[in-house]
Amino acid sequence: MFDKFSVSTPARVCMISIDNEVEGIIKKSGIQNGICVIYVPHTTAGVTINEGADPAVMSDIIDCLNKLIPSHGNYRHMEGNSDAHIKTSLIGASEHIIIEEGKPVRGTWQKLFFCEFDGPRNRQVYVKVIGE
Ligand code: ZN
After folding, report:
1. Ligand 1 centroid to 71 CA: how many Å?
2. Which residues, in sequence order, are CB contacts of 123 under 8 Å at separation 6+?
3. Mean pLDDT (whole number) for 68-79
4. What CATH number corresponds to the domain at position 38?
5. Alpha helices of the chain — where are they, by DSSP H?
6. Ligand 1 center from residue 84 Cα (angstroms)
């Protein structure tokens, strides 16, 4: 068994903080020492950990990804969203966080972001907490 929650994304490309949802699941699990896996079951959305203090960091990441991988290019995929698939593979579908004394262990500025590359859509995030 694993937990899941929904994310409604407001734009085609955006990063959404999901720390509160994941922390709630860790707390509910009662696990004190272990690992939390955050998994995004989509081919055009992913998850990453990066700076959450200054929102300009995530804006810079989005701008840079859009420059590296333009939405319209010489792509073969007929659906017209190849850029979203490529961005998703670069960012990745999962993250892992260590849990100690019932809390996620993170650096001072680190936050967890759901990364939408083909929104707006309703998305799912799967969370598995393992430990004791
Ligand atoms: Zn596609």
Report:
1. 12
2. 6, 7, 8, 9, 40, 42, 45, 114, 116
3. 95
4. 2.60.120.460
5. 19-29, 55-68, 82-91
6. 8
Domain limits for position 7: 3-131
Residue 93 Cα to ligand 1 middle (Å)? 16
pLDDT level of residue 122 (50, 70, 90 thresholds): very high
Q: Three-state SS for 26?
A: helix
- Mean pLDDT estimate for the chain: 97
Residue ranges with CB less than 5 Å from ion ligand 1: 79, 81
- The pLDDT, as a whole number, for residue 85 is 98
The tally of domains found in the chain comes to 1
**109/15 Cα distance (integer angstroms):** 16
Stated pTM of the model:
0.96
Tell me the CA–centroid distance for residue 79 and ligand 1, in Å: 5
At 72, the pLDDT band (50, 70, 90 cuts) reads very high
